[in-house]
Amino acid sequence: MIVVATTEDELAGICNRLRVLGVRSVDVVAPSDARRVVLASVEDAAGAAGLVVSLRAEGVMAVTRPDGGAALEAWYRDTRPVSFGERLSVCLAWSEHDRRQLPGLIELGPGGFGSGHHPTTSQIIEELAGRVVGGERVLDVGCGSGILGLCALQLGAAGVVAADIELDAVEAARRNAYINGMGGRLEATLDPLGRIEGPFDIVLANIARAGVVELARELVAHVSPGGWLAVGGISPSQCSQVVDFLHPLTEVSHRTSGAWSTVVLARA
Length: 268
Prior knowledge:
The structure is a single chain. It contains 8 helices and 14 strands. It is α/β, with parallel strands linked by helices and 268 residues long. It has 3 domains: 2-77, Alpha-Beta Plaits (2-Layer Sandwich); 81-108, no CATH class; 119-266, Rossmann fold (3-Layer(aba) Sandwich), CATH 3.40.50. It has a 7-stranded mixed sheet with strand order 10-9-8-11-12-14-13, with helices on both faces. A 4-stranded antiparallel sheet has the order 2-3-1-4, with helices on one face. The protein has a 3-stranded mixed sheet with strand order 5-6-7, covered by helices on one side.
């Protein structure tokens, strides 16, 4: 089985393209007013994987899906939308779950780390939901799918620079900004941190302890007076050590969920 995320306007073209590629059976799910999810039956896993590669090369949001059993149950669980309070929700574009009533919906296509389910991502999103007041300039270091920057924009930030060392991540962030109507407010770049002009009101770095320590001086330098930095992907036992590397910023908040922690630091 393959799943294609599309829109009502593009639905007929997608179905026709699938038939040209040899798919004989398709079903359509409408999880929201704007989103259409096409379920296409394919005889074998290898054929499904090859079809997904072909479709993605054409710019189509396509993924493989299990046909049944425990794997399908896990798929439904892992593609459920995630809500953060009353202002923000995140959902994979190909999810079959209904999302008509979700507040502040961000949809994500394939590519890049970050869907909102992992604690390292959700902790920083929760900080954004509680701290963004509107109009901020945001830097997302190690942007992955672009989820953090997109959430900041949905909450009212003015603009985002999303940086990563992986081309796949930069392209994913750029695509995700486009499908959420935010392409003009998010700049995705491969530029190293030292070449990105700051400062920023908010700096986000969900890049684990090693990444934070390596980039500590540059991360601190990019935080504007009165601004704040959130670092994630670290263990609870690493928090105090990471904070020491980020002097003169001072810790103002931290979150822990199981083996993962996020620390927020501010410049006076």
